[in-house]
Amino acid sequence: MDRLYRSRITIVAILSLLIALVFTFRLFGLQLVKNDANTYGSSDVTTYSLKVAAARGEILDRHGNVLVSNRATYSVTLNSFVLFNADDPNGLLLRLAETCKKNDIKYEDGLPLNDAAPYSYVEDKVDYTFKRYLLGREWDADMTAENLAKKLRQVYHISDEYTDREARLIMGLRYELDLPAYANADVYTLAEDVSADQLAILKELAVPGMDVTTTTVREYNTTFAAQLLGYVRAMDEDQYENTYKALGYAMDAKVGQEGLEQGFEEYLHGEDGTKVVTVAADGTVLDEYWEVEPQSGGNVVTTIDINMQEVAEKSLATHIQEVSANRTLNGKSDGWDADAGAVVVMNPQNGEVWAAANYPTYDPSDYFDKYNELLDQDVSPLRNRALLNAYPPGSTFKLITATAAMRAGISPATTIAGNGYKEFSDGTRLYCWIYKQGGVHGNLDMCSAIAQSCNIYFYNMGLMIGIDRLDEVATSFGIGQDAGCEVYNNPGMLASKASKAEVYGADTSDGQWWDADTATAAIGQSLNQVTPLQLCRYASAMGNGGTLYNATFLRRIMSADFQSTLKVNDYVPAATNLLTEQEYQTIYQGTRMCVTEGTGKGLRDYPVECCAKTGTAQHGSLGSDNGAFICWAPAINPEIAIAVYVEHGASGSNFADVAVDILDYYFNAQYPAQEIDLENEMTED
DSSP for 422-460? Predict the structure, then answer.
């Protein structure tokens, strides 16, 4: 009896062990086993995590006009597990690649080898991803292109029956399929933004593991503000390592590049999701669920008035072309080579940037399609001159010199004889612009010197107060500094003893500071370099009585569904009380006289009283001088400030009409630069 009982116990134990072994092998079959050839074992099923990119938030102007949004489109993906459980995966991949080539379907192929033997490296593709690929396989990073090709044919089992060209096509896709192994993903995105016709062609191939997903791509709803809006693209190695890796971004994530897309990346990008998918070897999806659901990015309501932006861009283009076409301007050829420029418009009461226009420019929706064409143009339309190009400010700087002189105790009533040139002890002469036209300004006080833009007056003022005091005041108005906005901008340079020593070398004669340096710095030359954005910010502070605001492109951040406000700009000043009452009144009188009787007479008949200052800036290269023009209106308690800068524009006075067009829009528009509250908005400011 005991023997019978023990026998039954033994049988039960053996059966239990067999059942456990069956379940063990079944569970093993659920695990992904991937070898060097991208082949899988005899598994019937695999479970993997699929990253799902979150939709980026929208970018809107201050009136609620959508500038950048998302367009639904198709992406084609390949599942490695299903593909490599099919017969002849290399042959399938070759058919796929050749079909894409034939039908102009752009697909990812980042393998840095040229198209056929003899193989060589394509240098711009030898990137961070490729280096990680070699490291992951423990291959020599210095191997030749030919050796790499041999290794790839070997590990990917690409037979000799394939030609070098065919082998290269297969290698490219095998390389891309291998990359997700290093990025902890199992699905490779073959092609993005595929049209319905292209999708039909690809589906006819019936490649195992090929799937179609609905995704979004950026869509531009305006043809203006191209350089300001920026674009979205996969990050490079430096961006990933230095910025986005620490923020938890996937290595293959796309991020904002330049302009508003980059400046507001933290709000726009959203949080990617993770979907867990179980799929059979034949491609049948057995189960899927969200481990983490994607969260769309926030919507950025900017300070930009896109209608004003349009006016600024069109006016700038029109007047640059007019000046360049007039080869006998003012009886000479000045300005015939005017070819590029920028306009910035700000609210002087809070620092909002309403427009940042560039010429030449382009349609932002054409950026990728026409990139090479745009890149090859002699005068680059890709450059954001409004924020990135630093120029000598010329005579627009003289308001700083006047302020520094008054701060040093010099009365605005002090007169200096403008005799046409300033001569130094070594015989060096610095001239006034009017002297070259056969005239002199005579005795001028400070207000008249501002109005007539007399170089001699300000040469002498600079020498009387010294470069250190001049630099102190210029620094307080933001010259040589970042403008404080969310978008990257060039800080420019302030002419100083330190900057000259840095540029030319402290131990060289060229690096020494001379009186002539102080004199030229006082009229906005020497090493002074400002962006149009800085120029407008500085003009705003002069016009509003001495409050310097950081330039800003942000009104508010809204939730993805526009139901709540996540952030509101508080417009805190960067500096206050930069002008005493006497200093402000002198600046006001001088810039007002510039309009009524001086070099800014292009605004003389404007129905709203304006203040202005013109500038002609030498730039050290061939061609006409640059032209600068700043103004604000109304003259007292201004509501709008404008800076116009034109390369080879000869004189800022040539471009007063650009400011007129913008002022007309502002004072005559139905909603002049006032924000219209968005529907469902909960917060007021």
Answer: EE-TTS-EEE-TTGGGT---EEE-HHHHHHHT-HHHHHH
d(C-alpha 42, C-alpha 343), whole Å: 66
Number of domains in the chain: 2
Per-residue pLDDT at 438: 73
> What DSSP character marks residue 40?
B
Rounded to whole angstroms, the Cα distance separating 158 from 149 reads 11
94 and 192 fall within a common domain: yes
The whole-number pLDDT of residue 185 equals: 62
Angle at 13 between CA 7 and CA 16, to 5 degrees: 145
Q: Strand, helix or coil at 117?
A: coil
376 forms beta bridges with none
User: What is the mean pLDDT of the segment spanning 148-160?
Assistant: 94
Same domain, 175 and 230: no
Q: Can you list the alpha helix ranges (DSSP code H) found in 444-571?
A: 446-452, 455-465, 467-476, 497-504, 515-521, 532-544
CB count in 10 Å sphere of residue 1 = 5
- 563 CB-contact burial (10 Å; exposed 0-12 / middle 13-18 / buried 19+): exposed
Name the phi and psi angles at 554, rounded to 5.
Answer: -110, 125
Best-predicted range by mean pLDDT among 46-60, 323-337, 515-529? 515-529
Computed over its alpha carbons, how large is the radius of gyration of the chain? 33
Residue 219 domain-assigned (yes or no): yes
Residues 217, 277, single domain; the answer is: yes
φ and ψ at residue 464, rounded to 5 degrees: -70, -35
Residues 198 and 214 in one domain: no
C-alpha distances (whole Å) from 182 to each of 71, 129, 245, 598, 677 are 30, 9, 15, 68, 47
User: Is the entire prediction scored with pTM above 0.90?
Assistant: no
CA atoms of 268 and 351, how far apart (whole Å):
22
Q: Of 182, 207, 232, which residue constitutes the final position of a domain?
A: 207
C-alpha 17/C-alpha 23 separation (Å) is 10
> Residue 464 in 3-state DSSP?
helix
Determine the Cα–Cα distance for residues 595 and 601; give it in Å rounded to an integer.
5
Confidence of residue 494 (pLDDT cuts 50, 70, 90): very high
N-to-C CA span, the chain = 91
Q: Over pLDDT 90: what percentage of the chain?
A: 69
- Determine contact, residues 51/294, Cβ cutoff 8 Å: no
| C-alpha to C-alpha distances, 217 to 30, 38, 345, 364, 394, nearest whole angstrom | 35, 30, 30, 14, 44
Position 453 pLDDT exceeds 70? yes
- Distance, in Å, from the CA atom of 115 to the CA atom of 101, rounded to the nearest integer, reads 12
Task: Tell me the C-alpha to C-alpha distance, in Å, between residue 36 and each of 33, 108, 152, 174.
Answer: 10, 21, 10, 11
Write down which residue in 298, 332, 359 finishes a domain: 298
Q: Is the peptide bond before 112 cis (omega within 30 degrees of 0)?
A: no
pLDDT confidence of residue 327 = 56
3-state secondary structure (DSSP) of residue 561: coil
Q: Is the dihedral of CA 576, 578, 580, 584 positive or negative?
A: negative
Cα diameter, the chain? 134
Q: Between 4 and 142, whose confidence is greater? A: 142
**Among the listed residues 277, 275, 233, the one whose alpha carbon sits nearest the alpha carbon of residue 255:** 233
Do 223 and 190 share a structural domain?
A: no
